[in-house]
Design a protein that fits this description.
Elements: H1 2-7, H2 9-46, E1 53-57, E2 63-69, H3 78-93, H4 99-111, H5 115-130, H6 134-137, E3 142-152, E4 158-169, E5 174-188, E6 199-208
Antiparallel strand pairs: 1-2, 3-4, 4-5, 5-6
Helix pairs in contact: 3-4
């Protein structure tokens, strides 16, 4: 009798309906899941980026203290900021004879400049018919700006970087060595570089140190 019931049209219709309902439930669940994932993806894309963070480390490279959002220059550990300002001066005034490397130095410098500081660097590059512009003279001149010291000055967010500029000109036939001093004012802001601490130089001056 049981076998006959299983072979009956009524049983077959009920079994088909049950399978169809299961398929519809699975289909609707898949659509719902796709919708939730789509909404989450859109929300993630339009979420404002988090503030940049900095981790202070000890001499062994181990994290010290807590991770801080950078909302002011004072929030950046002094040693880290001075080291990065020294790197900025190196990039701004060094000249590399490899064009790709020189382009990288210029791009890194421009990414840190705003306001008066950007105009000051542009004026320096254009002075004496482009004599100081690394984009014009890299083929026959190279220079190394070696930071000697970085100091925090009195006043809000002002720094000083002393550096030695060694220039090899005229296809390395003329070498000059001079010491320079740069004074910088630093601000914080949003950076498109996720690895950046979000600081920028908005004012700067530099001059050769005469002994």
């Amino acid at each position: 009798m049981a076998a006959a019931l299983k072979d009956s049209p009524l049983y077959t219709d009920r079994l088909t309906a049950w399978h169809n309902s299961r398929l519809w439930i699975a289909f609707l669940a898949a659509i719902g899941l796709a919708g939730i994932l789509g909404i989450a993806d859109v929300a993630q894309k339009f979420r404002p980026p988090p503030p940049p963070y900095v981790i202070e480390v000890n001499t062994h490279g181990e994290p010290v203290g807590q991770i801080l959002p950078i909302t002011s220059v004072q929030a950046i550990p002094n040693a880290i900021l001075k080291a990065q300002l020294a790197d900025f001066i190196h990039d701004a005034f060094s000249i590399d004879q490899d064009k790709d490397e020189e382009d990288r130095l210029v791009a890194r410098t421009q990414a840190r400049l705003t306001g008066q500081a950007g105009r000051t660097i542009d004026e320096w590059y254009q002075r004496d018919n482009g004599k100081h512009d690394p984009r014009n003279i890299w083929r026959y001149t190279w220079a190394e700006a070696m930071p000697l010291d970085a100091l925090k000055l009195d006043g809000a967010d002002r720094y000083q970087v002393d550096y030695r500029l060694t220039t090899h000109a005229d296809n390395n036939t003329t070498i000059t060595i001079a010491e320079w001093r740069a004074t910088l004012h630093v601000i914080v802001g949003h950076s498109t570089d996720p690895a950046s601490l979000g600081w920028f130089v908005d004012w700067m001056d530099f001059e050769q140190v005469r002994k």
